[in-house]
Each structure stands twice: as structure tokens, then as C-alpha cells.
Amino acid sequence: MPAVRYILCWILLTVCLCELASAQGLMIRNYNVKDGLANATVYTAVQDKEGFIWFATPTGVSKFDGKRFRNYAKKDGLTDNDVVRLSADSKGRVWFSTLNGLPSFYFNYEIHSGANDSSLRIDSHGQYMQYMFEDYAGFIWFLNTDSRIIRYSGMRTEYKQGRTDLFYFLRNDTIFKPLQNYFNLGTLKDINNPAIKIFLSSPYPADDDVFIGRIRKNPIVILKNAIYTYNNKEATCFFNGPDWGINDEISNVCLDNDNLWIGTPRALYYLKDFFKGARHITKLLDNHYITSILKDRDGNIWITTFGDGVYNIPYKNFYFNYLDNTNGLFSHSIFSICKDRKTGILLVGQNAGVLNTIDSNNNIRRFNLDTTSGRNSILSILPYKDNEILIGADNGLFTFNTLQQRVSVLRPIKNMKDMDVGPDGSIRAVSKDQVIGENYSVEVPDVQITSVASVSDSSYYVGTGSGLFYGKDGSAKVVIPGTEVELHQPVKDLKYIDGYLWIGTADQGLYVLKNNRVVKHIGSADKLVSDICQQLYYDGVGRLYVSTNKGVSVIDVHTQTLIRNITSNDGLMSDDTRGVYYQHGVLYIATSNGLSYFNDKNMPVDTVPPPVYLSHIRYGDSTFLPAKKITLLYQRKASFEVEFGAIAYDLPDLVEYQYNFSSDTSSGWITTMSNIVPFPDLQPDTYELQIRARKYKSEWSQPVAITVTILPRWYQEWWARGIVILLALLLVAFILRYIFLRFKDGEKRKTEYNRRIAELEAKALTNQMNPHFIFNSLNSVQHLIMEKEEKQALNFLADFATLMRQMLNNSRKSYISLDEEIAFLTRYIELEKIRFANVFTYNFALQDALKDYTIYIPPMIIQPIVENAIKHGLAPKNGSGHLEVKLMLKGDMLYCSVDDDGIGWDRANELKSGRLVKHESTALSVIRERLQIIKSFNGNVGKLEIIDKFKSGFGNKEGTLVEILIPIVKML
């Protein structure tokens, strides 16, 4: 809040007729340029429909909410900076009369003028609007300084009939309602209404209710230094300045309930209860040019001046009376207060031994107590005997005779701290280390005594910096009562009431003692205004007043509960209170800044909540005018801010706010003292902001609600987000597919690589078997040559060469057709028949289904088995033998059996040499290994089984049966 300069204008009332001046003062605040006012010269003031106070100055207008000034000038939309008059109409518009005569008004957070509102365009001819009226249709009428009438209908501004004067509007008071409180005229004679009666003095009493009703209802006109109530039948003077000692011309006037305020170019005058017949006048703001006086809807008085800014008298200050060194007292630092019930004399104790008295006629006198031995502040004043008041000061006890108006020394006491009067009228006083009775004293060593309270004629309590003590007359010492730890708190003051001892402590609030036991504690947690107690006062009718460093707390002694607190926020001159006195409904409170007194039952409490208003709405770098609904386009990392305020002219610094940014108003309120609420980075959505306020002792106001809609950018729309999500999913799918294909391709390459390795290994194993066959074949050729069968040997070689070529071709392939394999086996068996002199016969048995497919099998799988059957089964047999090779399909495998009727597997093994055993084992293991390799890249599991038919249930049949399942590739 701008700094507010407080000044105390304590002006003694001027002598008026035979009446004496009143000793009441008023606390007045001053607002000036340093507080934010547009100019120190203020022409007039007006309050608008919302409650703002507007001030017209030569450099623009100021709008005031009690804490902040908002200034408007030509750059803000005014037609001219020099605004001479203001008016507020029924629609909430504030009209500005400027020197250039162009009309303009403020409405809905904006200044309307001819520049932005075509309905206000008019040629003013340089004449400004002097008076404003509103008719019952809501049209605005102006009378300018050229006596021309201008009407604003809301649609346009136009000149009406020819020139006229102010009396035209005053005569037609049933049509026109004036938008100002008074009119300054040079004459009361209306040439168009010669029948009007003019009364230079009122024929009615000032407190006549009917006459007062006319004054409040009719226009008020000022003629020089007299004030009239005016209608179309008569003009009656109800205030004549010279009769009240006002010889200056009256410039303005204000009716304030039963009070009358009058402004002149030299001073401000306050006539309290004027309309009740009172004859007291108070002169305020001497040597100030008063330009206007305004009473706002709360009862506060606003005084505008020429060159001295604006003065404000809060409404509640009219309920208080103030005394200090500016209006009759010796000092502003008050220590004690008391009033004599018989004579009504008010006694005010101050420092330097000064006692001020104020009688019922407001005569103030000063008495000096003995100060020869240093400081002698008057600490306590108590009723004593008839026509005598007991006074306790730093240097002793004194009495004041209320009839003789004389101070007498009763007893000197050095460093006296407190005193009390017992039920029998006996006096007990305490110094810093002694209890002093009327005929005895008791020393209390090693403690600092602060207070004393009489319990009975013979007993008392003593408060010290170390705690509580109890003593009796005739005893040479005091004792600690009870054992409770609370009794050891530093004591500031004591008060014994109806069997209860009330203890005011230095920092722990109040304790209540009954029979030396603590029965109650009241502290700041119980809303005591402060835990630092300075003085206790009992008014005798059930209320205990606790003076503290933060005000006064009032306690109900019967219920031992807090009634209320009284502080400077309620109207005290200071929170540092030293003493209280109550009599006949008037409460006197002594403070370090003077004496405040007021009617206890009529102390004002403003419980009306302050209205909340919106000032600005900001989003990012943009500022918007307030509105109940506002729609904004989302800005990334932009802050949404609402600036607001509350209209409170009394204690504006104590206004607190609450806001809620959700629909949960039960628990979602956030309290703040700031008038700006920021919400950073709001996401697109619709929000509701509610703001409310309260001031000192009021309830919360009705909340002001704003609906804020943040619209999303196109990329924040659901369809845009859906597209982004879809694209993201497609991208993820593409990446996953790419990774899968890469993995699959890698696996495929790996499988192909493994397959190629397996094929090479299979070919290598095949090639391992070729030398064995070649070796055996060459042995056969050698055998034929040695047997002199050259021709047969040559034929054998020819067939062998063909077989070798076929074998070499097959060894380069992973698979050969079954027909090629059978042709190869046939040629091979024929060669073996030649070699073994045709000792066996053979045949191939093929399943018919084999003819429907082209079957491919690995080469050199069957040949080693056939070779073993011939060489080891049929060749050693006595007599001819037979070999059968059977082929058939079993699923995706080729079943092959090689059946011979030779000597059998076991017999053959017995006849074999070690070399043959080694060779045969190698051949069979190679076949098995090839089947495993084929499985690795084909997936089908081959099988090799050797059966000795004699031992395996074939009857008496001899020979060997070898069965093999060969993986194949089958094609149609």
C-alpha cells in the first residue's frame, strides 16, 4: 500500500456564541502524490456504483480502492488531462468534465469518448460541462458554461433547445435528478419563477424532522456563506455562516447523518449533531483550501483540497474521542486514568509528575506533583475517600481533593511500583523491594516487586519478577503460596475479584488462582490479544480489562472467557496500552500515544465484507481487460496471472484474499495477502477461478468467478495427437519389423551357413567313403588279372570307370534323385557280382507310390550298407546267396532295407580281422554321423538299425537285415 501519512488534527473549538470549545480530536489521514495520487490539487471526488472513490485533478483522474491509486490521463483515453468535475450516474458510469468540453465516461474497465464511441461525438465549442443531471429515462443532461443544454441518450450526444440557466433543471426537479450534491449560485432569483419564496433565515427549528426531510430530499444551493434548501416553491436558508463565525464564502457542503460539514477556501468546519440542534462547531484543516467534501457509503469522510491532496476521516473515528499533547494534555504518553464519580472530573496521569484534570465543562487543568527526587511518573490513580482520589507515583503517594482542586503529599516512597486500597480503606503500596502498609513495612529481598493486591483487611498478595508471594499484616515476611510451577512466572499486575486472584504475567498471559491453585489460564492461544500483560482493571460489573502491548482484552470474570479485543485497528491511538477506566458506559484507555475514550456499547465494528474487483488478466506477454469468461490460445511456458483487489478504506493493509482454482470450494481455498495470483504453464482445458476477500473482523465476501478456457494449438487437438500416435506406432512397427527382418535375415544367413557347413561335412564324409570303395574295386581288378581273366578285368575296369565318374558327380551334390541312386547301386552290385564270381543274386523292390514323386536323397548313404552285405554276409557263405534292396515311403522319409541271406551279423564279426572290424566300425559311424548332419539342416531324423535275423525271431533264416530311414526331398 502507498504510504499513508497520518496526522492528528487536535483543534480546540472556536468560541461560538456562548459555548466553550470541545476537547475532542479527530484522526485524519492524508493521501498525496507520494502515495500515488495524480496531483496534490484535487477539484472534487465521487464514489461510483462499485464503491471506488474517484478524484479529479489538473493532470487526470485517480481511482482509489483504499490501498492503491490507478491514474488515468489523456494517453489512457481522457479527452483532456484537466478534469474539473466528476459525476456518477445510476448505470455505474463515471462522467468526466474536462476543460475542452468533450464528454467522456468510464464504464466496464474502459474510458469511452468520441475517439472510440461515436455516440459521444459533439462539437463542444471549448465550453466545459458545468452541471450534470439524469432524467428518469436514464438520459444524461449537461449544462455547459455557455448555458447550452446537451443531452446524451446512449445513442448520440446532441444540443437541445437554446440557452438557459441552472434554474430550468431546479424548477423541473420531478424530471431531473442532479448528479452533484450542491450548487454554487450568484443569486436565488429565478426570472422564470417570480413566485418563489426566499427565506434568508429559517422559519423552522434546526431539529424539525419535516424540515430536515426537505433538506435531505431537495437540492442544496450555496449563496456566498449561506446554505439553502431549494425547490420550485421556496428557497430556505438553514445555515448562515456569520452566525457561526464563518465569514469566508462557503465553497462546498456535505450532509453526514445528523452532522454538517462545511468547506471554505480557508478551513474545514465540522458541526456535530447539527440537525439535532447542537451548537458546537469544530474547525479543522486550518489554512487549507477545501474544494469538495464526500461522504462514502461506509460513512468515511473525504476532503479534497487545492494543493494539499486528499484527507480522509474514517467513519469509526467519529465514535472515538482523543486527547494528547496537541489538544490539552501535557504529554502524549499516558500511564493512568480515573474519573471521580461524584464530580465527573477526569484525571489523567502522565510522566514528569504531571496530572491533567478535565471537568464536565471540558476545562483542562494541569497539576505538578513533587519531582525533586527524579522521575515521578503517575503510575496509578484510584478512588479513595469522599472528595479524594489516591495517586501513586514513582516518588510516593499523593491525594487529589476534587472539591478544592488541590494535590497533597500523603507519603513519600522511593521507587514505588504499585498500590491498592483494601476493603477497609487501608492503603498498601509496594516499592521495588518492600511492602508498605499504613503502619508497617516488610522487606522482600532478592526480588523485584511489581504489584500488590489486597485480599482482606489483613492479607495481601505481592507480584514480583520471580513469581507470586502471600503476606499478612503483622508478619515480618511474605511466603510463596502453593507449590504449582505457574506461580513462579514473572508477575506484572494483580487483581483480587470475588475470591479469585487474577495474575497478569510478563509473557505467559493470565492465570486465575483459587485457594492458591491455578484454575484457569488464558493466553494468546485463547485469542488474548497478547501474552505480555501490563495492567489489570476491574470495572466492578463483571469485566476485567487486560492492558497489553498489543491492545486491550476484555474478560468476563464470571465465565472466565474472552469477550473481545480492542486495538488500534478498532480506533485506539496506540496498541501500547497502560491503563483502563470504565464509567457510565464510557471506556477510557490510556496509551503511549494519548488517551482514547468512547461509548463502550456503540464501538463500531465493520463486519461488511469488502467487494472484490478484477484489475487485469495477463497471459504470456498480453494483457486483457477483466471478464467473467475469457478464452485464450495456448502458449508454451506462458504464465496466466490475475490481478485483483478489494475496496476497503479502513485498514486496507489487513485485507486478505482467498482463491480457488477448482470446483472444490469446501477445502480448496488458498489464502494470500498478495493481489496477484500466477498460474504457470496452464495446459489446454477449462478452469474456474474464484476469488474472495475479507477485512478486519468481517466475513468472507461473495466470490468473484472467472471461467478461463485455454484452447489447444492444432498439434494439441485429439485428431492431431491421434495422427502423431499413429505415426509413432507405425514408426515403431517399422523399426521393429526392420529389426525382426534383420534378425530373421541373420538367422537365415546363419542357418544357410550352418547348412552349407553341414553339406560340406556330408560331402567330406562321402569323400571319406570313396577311397574305401576304390580300394576294394582295385583289389577286385587285381584279383581278376591274377586269375588270368584279362577280358573280364577289362570289362570290370570299363564299368568301374563309369561307376567312378558317376560317384564323383554324385559326391559334388547334396542330394541326388532316387533313380540315380538305384542306377548307381545297380552298377555297383554288378561290379561286385563280377568280383565275387556271381555267388549271389539281387533285386530291387520299389513301392508303387515312389513312381508318383521325384525323390531326392543324400548320395552314398545306401552303398556302404550294400557293400557290407555283399562282402561280409554273402561272400563268406558256402553256396549262392541273395540280396534284396527294398524302398518305400514312410511319411516324409524314405525307408530302405538291405536284406541278405548270408552268414549273419554275429558270424561275420567272428570271422573279421581287426582291420576289418576297424573299417566296418568306421563305415557305420560315418553313416550315422551323416544322418545327424542331414538332420541339422533338414530337420528330419534318420535311423540306422542292424538286425541279425537268426537271433531276432526270423525262424531259422540266416543273414542280416539293415533298415535305414533316410530324410528326403519330395517333389511331384
From TrEMBL:
Pfam families in the record: His_kinase, Reg_prop
Signal sequence residues: none
Protein name as annotated: Signal transduction histidine kinase internal region domain-containing protein
Keyword Coiled coil part of the UniProt annotation: no
SUPFAM superfamilies associated with the record: ATPase domain of HSP90 chaperone/DNA topoisomerase II/histidine kinase (SSF55874), Calcium-dependent phosphotriesterase (SSF63829)
Organism: Chitinophaga silvisoli
Annotated Gene3D superfamilies: Histidine kinase-like ATPase, C-terminal domain, Immunoglobulins, YVTN repeat-like/Quinoprotein amine dehydrogenase
PANTHER family: SENSOR HISTIDINE KINASE YPDA
A molecular function GO annotation: phosphorelay sensor kinase activity
Annotated GO CC locations: membrane
Keyword Cell membrane recorded: no
Keywords annotated in UniProt: Membrane, Transmembrane, Transmembrane helix
